[in-house]
Amino acid sequence: MRRSISHWILCFMCLVLIFIIPTSSVYARSPYEGYIWNSRHDAPSINGYLYKDSIDGLNLSSGPFKTPEDIYINESDHIYIADSGNNRIVLLDNQHELIQIYGDAEGPGKLNGPKGIYVKDDGTLFVADTQNSRIAIFDKDGAFKSEILTPSSPLLGANFIFSPSKLIVDKRDYLIVANDGTSSGLLQIDPNGKFKGYFGANMIEFSWARLFVRLFATDEQRAQLATVRPQEFSNLYQDEEGFIWTSTLGAEYNQIKRLSAVGVDTYNPDWTKKYNRKDYGDTFTIGTFDIASFVDLTVDKKGVVTGLDISTGKAFQYDKVRSLLFVFGGLGDQDGLFKTPIAIDQTSDGSLFVLDKTRGRIDRFRTTPFGDLVHHASELFVDGRYAEAKEPWTRVLELNSNYDLAYGAIGKALEKEERWKEAMAFHKKSRVQVNYSTALREYRKQWLRENFGSVVAGIIIVYLLFKFGFPLLRKRLNRKSSSAAMPEFGMKGGFSE
Amino acid sequence: MNLLRNSRKVLAHPFEFFYDIQVEGQAKWRHAIILLVLMAIVHLLKISWTGYTFEGRASYQISVVFETFWLIVPWVTWCISNWAVSAILDGEGKFKDIVVSSAYAMIPYIVLSLPLALFSQILTFDEKYTYFTILYAIYLWVAFLFLMKVKVLHDFQFGKMLWITLLTLLGMLIIWFVGFLIFGLVNQVIDFVIGIMKEIQFRL
């Protein structure tokens, strides 16, 4: 088959075009889709956070990270990295340049598999030196200061193994330590290294099935049963006000908690009531992995908490009143997805840093304009400034009509303006029955006040109808039906009235 | 008009009604069918008319087929099971009488559901006890009519009535179980036949 010359020329020109046309219009699409959990379903949403860049340590003189376990970012945005595989702590400045390395020198300060770090305001570094079963303390300049070894206390029991994984130092200079394998709560250790009791243990839910099995099992069977223990804390975080936030592994609900000074959860209301329980993370009820496994969390100055779920590889952000704001990340190979996300922290400009253990790098996420807008609106809203929050929430809805939180917030603002009927419509859209009911109650009052005259007239008319109208009607009907002579049937038994 | 008069009689004098329905020519299939259709319509309207305070589902979350199915099927199985059980244990009721009077026993639900649904539009959570009291009163009334129906139609003593009712419920479960079984087996047979057809097509 012969082909014309013009055909070949055309082909050639096409080829040339393909190579010549610049690829400037190519942009990086986010590897994850934004979504939000509304009352019953997940709905597509706009991303609040997008991947910006990574720190992998390759261009630092300290070399690449190896299975890092934790990051801590201090007030001047310096980043401490627990570089566990290399048995050291690396300190970077806010430009991500190396400042210092802790714990790599031979001697008493040599670290072994450190899993958690905390830095006090004065720069003192506390390291949960997990493999060495101790807590190592370094001063600001990197010199080893002291260590806290296995605390001894009858409360801890004979089989206690000190294996600190995460820690913080509270305002009293007490260390609050999450110990691997301890389910009785967080360890409180005073500055002298003395154990001062457990703090904020998780609870076990009462179960009829367990009680039943216990009742009928023989002693041998009972010994075979696995003892039910409360879930362990996977991580902890101290916010600006000194509250300790915890994440729990293996819990089906209330995985994120804010503990008060006496260890009571103040983020979630009374957990014993079923309707107060919140499933953080993705709430799929189908499949084997239906619960989120939060491994770390971070809280900003406004009380917005971001938890990192290792099973889906996603970070979930919640506002002060437990409403989901954004989800980002996921498992995968692209930039913006993770292999093993293990720790999260944030800088003062609102960037989130997620530490990927397998890749040995830190990924930075920046807010999108939509994210900033929602944060602004949410901040006003949780402070109770509903009227001011109305305008930004309206803009949120213009960008994303799936964002049900905004409907509820605008509904609250309308309530403040006493526009109850519109508030009802918005609460219905946000699908919160309680708020709808509240608005309805006020609307009912308002309606009654405005239509008092007609209501009274209506009642009088109905009363008159019942008193005189219906009896008259009945009399007339009866007269008619008796004249029609309906067939009557006799009774069989004595049941008639 | 007969239907209307009967309905009033069920509400006002249920015993009288269940005696009279047994007289030859009183029970009409036509009435049962009309009442069943009404029941389904009322059930669907009730869901969509109930105030948002008490019915949180949006209209797209409600399936007409699903709702109707789970209303009609239990009712039909009740009729069959009740007839079967009472026929074995010397009940006097005829199948036609059972079906028609079972349909009439749903009258309180048909009559009162919609007014309650409209009333719930102006109720808030503070008055939830009012709403649920009325709702359960309707259900209780219907249950009472069903029990009386069993008693009068089959001419049972009180104790035997309860026993038969229990057996009827058990019978319903068995019917459903057999139904699911047959459904599964028929599925298998259809699969098998389709498989053979495909095989033959493939070989030819």
Concise summary:
With 497 residues, chain A is α+β, with helices and mostly antiparallel strands. Chain A is built from 9 helices and 25 strands. In chain A, 27% of the residues lie in helices and 25% in strands.
Can you describe what's shown?
- The complex is a heterodimer of chains A (497) and B (204).
- Chain A is an alpha+beta fold.
- Chain A has 9 helices and 25 strands.
- The longest helix of chain A has 33 residues.
- The radius of gyration of chain A is 32 Å and the shape is globular.
- The N and C termini of chain A lie far apart (104 Å).
- By secondary structure, chain B is an all-alpha fold.
- Chain B is globular, with a radius of gyration of 21 Å.
- Chain B starts with a helix and ends with a helix.
- At the A-B interface, α8 of A face α2 of B.
Secondary structure elements and their pairing?
The complex is a heterodimer of chains A (497) and B (204).
Chain A: H1 5-20, E1 35-37, E2 42-44, E3 49-55, E4 70-73, E5 79-83, E6 88-92, E7 98-102, E8 116-119, E9 125-129, E10 134-138, E11 144-148, E12 164-169, E13 175-179, E14 186-189, E15 195-199, H2 208-216, H3 219-224, E16 233-238, E17 244-248, E18 256-259, E19 294-299, E20 305-309, E21 314-318, E22 324-329, E23 341-346, E24 352-356, E25 361-367, H4 369-382, H5 386-399, H6 404-416, H7 420-430, H8 433-450, H9 452-484
Antiparallel strand pairs in A: 1-2, 3-25, 4-5, 5-6, 6-7, 8-9, 9-10, 10-11, 12-13, 13-14, 14-15, 16-17, 17-18, 19-20, 20-21, 21-22, 23-24, 24-25
Chain B: H1 2-12, H2 14-20, H3 29-49, H4 64-88, H5 95-105, H6 107-120, H7 128-154, H8 158-203
Helix pairs in contact in B: 1-2, 2-7, 3-4, 3-5, 3-6, 4-5, 4-8, 5-7, 6-7, 7-8
